[in-house]
Specification:
The chain is built from 24 helices and 29 strands. An eight-stranded mixed sheet has the order 1-8-2-7-6-3-5-4. The chain has a six-stranded parallel sheet with strand order 10-16-14-11-13-12. It has a six-stranded mixed sheet with strand order 18-28-27-22-21-20. Helix 1 crosses helix 2. The N and C termini lie far apart (66 Å).
Length: 854
């Protein structure tokens, strides 16, 4: 029996070797030429199909794939050259086996979605969605290695729009792909030179050259035109040249640009066998391309890479808001690593308007001084710990303008010199100790498995840190760039676009960020602080305005929702050509640049089965008093027309069978904050009226009041005669110039206040099912009187007192799941943008796309 199994294993290995040269169908024909029995061929094919199914049904990464897409690649072979070299290098660099296995799985899935290199012709379009600074370069390097092991020939990597990122990408690929196997590669770009045409393309693509060809280029019109012409000149050699084009930062310059987008498509058109795979952490623009156009929409596949273990992402740092079906209490607030830059400081570190640029000179404000001092302290603490990343970087990003960057040099050098001179003074010594002790107490090293460092330990390292620290202006005009290749770096990097996308800032521990932007993708990519912080996970800090912090928290929600959409559509059998990922809108940010949204449409969602709640409020007396009046009117009407069921002994009242008229009147009178887009009074009223008209539901409502039992306290709030409760505490999670955000209003159990059998352990989905059984046609509206002070508990160190001028009325609404398909009464979430005419919004600078000097 074992001999038969061994023989089948050997035959299966033969079949896998045949797949290197032939498509699966051709490989089966070859087996028949060996006079192999049909039952043996069937067993081999069945085994291959099982491998294919295993790859297709991987738990991670999730992917959405076009219908009837053939998978041929089932993983690396023992005799492969390039992939084993990568794994050996990663292991040497300290990668754990689970991390390497995860990379193996995700890269195998991507390669399995490429076409077989022996197909007569093909043109594949795909997109891989990762996280900012999460190892996308390593992933596409692994994909390139595996594709090369399977005989893909030409590899073109489009590496951003700046020289710094192109050079960094070239260096990584040379280190991981070329140096371990130099005889297998021919390079037509190098560290110092972008693409320059060679005289003889045949020397690269002729049959006598068995090497793989590597080309790493910027998305620059001059460079790409040369590459297009060179490939056109080599056209007679390209018929049997399987090519993989990796578009790093695929949302940048690729979508809706007049020069770059057509040039990329020209490159693809010159290659009879081409696979285009975009990589990005901000795929908003890519997902808005018109799928029907001859463009770069990922029509064949979208792969959603999992967040690697130990990665600091948007949600980890900023927290996020609850999505549909989530209990806000179960959603993390993020780490206490964000520090506030007051609005008054902003005009001292960046010019207010274009007219102010020439005369602008930055000030070392109290917050900027604190950030710089903390950076030196963290660098010293890391030296005490030893190990980990040997580089230490601080990012200062306030403006896109090089003149502003350059004017930071002298103030920062002056601060460094004064600190060095006065390091032994009691005043500076005390300032540094207090700063370190405060920060170390707010984020405990033990929570991250790191060694705590006392001030007395790190102070000994501080003189050397100050001596080693450089101040680097990294912009398109400077010659003094960050260079991590020649020994440990300690640097304060001041810059704009050259530091804002793709480029890895090694050992980044402190960021000072007040740049004003207007789109999701630009903002998210500027978060250079995302990534891995092995050995100093407790130390990173970010100084930014409250508004920017709120924007990043919103982005964390958008990211999570977008990825959940991809995952949901995968389980529903959708494909890139019949689904569209929804991108949640924001009142002050566009999803992406206007030119990239020309094919976008408003997305819709129904209120059916949803729980919505207020969490944004204006802390203005008139606004709050009007909402108190609306709430009192509603409860009075409810008492008159409904049935009071709960006595309020536990601080809660329930009034059943209230007319929808009272609810609609309340929605007209109550003022919802414009940031609460799912709590749009007009849309909710329209939904209720259409349900009443079309389905005879939502005519009756249950109204609840949730507070604390009345005692002798003066905190009592009167809704109506015999309906009085004490106020509840909902402290402030975040705030901005026009709002206060409490984040969490309702508990999950509150969504079932009018249902029987609901406990604290009942899940959201179970509550929906019970509502369908007990109250299928009635809505629930819950009122929360929130104490105007609302001082947080001491353990809630990310929260502040509400300090409103009047008590705040919070509102939650629960809509039953309709029995019919109520898509005809959906509400629309429109893309909207704030009026930015009075503010200087600094968009990404794309002048590098057309620059002749490359």
């Amino acid at each position: 029996m074992s001999n038969v199994i061994d023989e089948h294993d050997e035959l299966f290995d033969v079949f896998r070797l045949l797949l290197d040269t032939y498509t699966p169908a051709e490989a089966i024909k070859k087996l028949r030429l060996f006079s192999m029995p049909d039952d043996v061929i069937k067993r081999i094919v069945d085994r291959h199909e099982r491998e294919v199914v295993r790859i297709k049904e991987m738990r991670e990464p999730h992917s959405v794939v076009v219908d009837n897409y053939e998978t041929w690649y089932t993983g690396p072979h023992p005799d492969d050259k390039l992939w084993p070299s990568i794994t050996a290098g990663l292991a040497k660099d300290g990668w754990s086996k689970p991390s390497i296995d995860q990379l193996d799985d995700s890269s195998t899935r991507v390669v399995s979605l490429l076409q077989h290199p022996r197909q007569s012709s093909f043109s594949t379009r795909g997109l891989v969605v990762g996280y900012v600074q999460s190892g996308k370069t390593t992933n596409f390097t692994a994909v390139m290695a595996k594709a090369a092991d399977r005989r893909y020939k030409l590899f073109i990597v489009l590496a951003g729009i700046h020289n710094g990122l192109r050079r960094q990408t070239q260096a990584r690929l040379v280190q991981q792909l070329v140096e371990p196997n130099p005889t297998l590669w021919s390079q037509i770009t190098d560290l110092d030179h972008d693409f320059r045409p060679t005289a003889n393309p045949a020397s690269y693509f002729g049959k006598s050259n068995k090497t793989h060809v590597l080309c790493v280029v910027k998305k620059n019109a001059t460079v790409l035109r040369k590459l297009v012409k060179w490939l056109a000149d080599a056209s007679e050699y390209l018929a049997d040249c399987p090519a993989l084009i990796i578009d790093d930062e695929a949302d940048q310059a690729t979508v809706a640009t007049k020069s770059i987008n057509p040039l990329i498509r020209q490159i693809l058109s010159t290659l009879p066998k081409s696979a285009y795979v975009g990589y990005t952490a901000s795929p908003f623009a890519n997902l808005l391309i018109n799928p029907a156009a001859e463009d770069l929409y990922p029509e064949h596949f979208i792969v959603n890479l999992p967040q690697p273990q130990g990665h600091f992402g948007t949600e980890v740092l900023f927290g996020r808001y609850a999505l549909d079906g989530e209990d806000p209490n179960d959603v993390d607030d993020g780490y206490d690593m964000i520090r506030t830059v007051p609005e008054d400081d902003v005009e001292l570190v960046r010019p207010k308007t274009r007219a102010d640029v020439d005369d602008f000179h930055p000030t070392i404000t109290a917050t900027l001084r604190r950030a710089v001092l903390y950076f030196w302290l963290t660098t010293a603490a890391r030296r005490v710990r030893g190990g980990g990343n040997r580089h230490s970087t601080m990012l200062i990003h306030t403006s896109v303008r090089t003149v502003v960057h350059n004017r930071f040099r002298d103030p920062l050098l002056s601060l460094r010199a004064k600190t060095r001179r006065n390091l032994e003074s009691s005043l500076v010594h005390r300032e540094l100790r207090e700063l370190w002790d405060e920060e170390a107490s707010r984020v405990l090293a033990a929570e991250f498995g790191e060694q705590s460092v006392s001030f007395d330990e790190l102070i000994a390292e501080l003189p050397d840190v100050l001596r080693d620290c450089r101040v680097v202006m990294d912009n398109s005009e400077s010659t003094d760039r960050l260079d991590y290749e020649n020994g440990p770096v300690v640097a304060i990097a001041v810059g704009g676009n050259t530091l804002s996308r793709g480029l890895t800032l090694e050992g980044l521990s402190v960021s000072y960020f007040v740049r004003s932007v207007s789109t999701y993708d630009t903002l998210l990519q500027m978060g250079r602080w995302f990534g891995y912080r092995k050995g100093y996970a407790d130390l990173p800090r970010i100084w930014m305005t409250e508004e920017l912090e709120d924007w990043f928290r919103h982005l964390a929600t958008v990211e999570t929702e977008m990825r959940r959409d991809i995952d949901v559509y995968m389980t529903e059998g959708k494909t890139p050509m019949n689904f569209a990922v929804r991108l949640r809108a924001h009142p002050a940010l566009r999803v992406t640049a206007a030119a990239k949204m020309k094919d976008a449409v408003s997305a819709s969602s129904s209120y059916g089965g949803q729980r919505v709640q207020t969490r944004y409020f204006r802390l203005e007396s008139e606004w709050l008093l009007q909402n108190q009046t609306a709430a009192r009117t509603l409860v009075s009407e409810a008492v008159r027309g409904g049935s009071v069921e709960d006595s309020g002994a536990d601080g809660r009242y329930l009034i059943r069978d209230v007319s929808s008229d009272a609810v609609l009147d309340f929605l007209r009178d109550y003022q919802f904050h414009e940031r609460s887009q799912d709590c749009d009074a007009k849309l909710m009223s329209g939904y209720i009226e259409k349900r009443i008209r079309n389905a005879q539901t939502l005519r009756r409502w249950n109204i609840a009041v949730v507070g604390k039992p009345v005692d002798d306290s003066t905190e009592r709030f009167d809704f109506a005669p015999q309906i009085s409760v004490r106020t509840i505490v909902r402290s402030q999670f975040a705030s901005g110039p026009d709002h206060s955000d409490i984040k969490t209003l309702m508990s999950r159990r509150d969504a079932g206040l009018d249902l029987e059998g609901i406990t604290t352990s009942t899940t959201e989905e179970e509550i929906k099912k019970v509502r369908t059984a007990q109250q299928p046609d009635a809505g629930l509206l819950v009122l929360y009187p929130i104490d105007k002070v609302s001082k947080p508990e001491p353990s809630k160190n990310k929260r502040q007192p509400l300090n409103a001028p009047e008590h705040v009325i919070g509102v939650g609404l629960v809509f039953p799941t309709p029995k019919d398909n109520d898509s005809t009464v959906a509400w629309e979430a429109n893309y909207i943008s704030a009026d930015l005419s009075g503010v200087e919004i600094e968009e990404e600078d794309f002048s590098a796309l057309e620059a002749e000097d490359i």
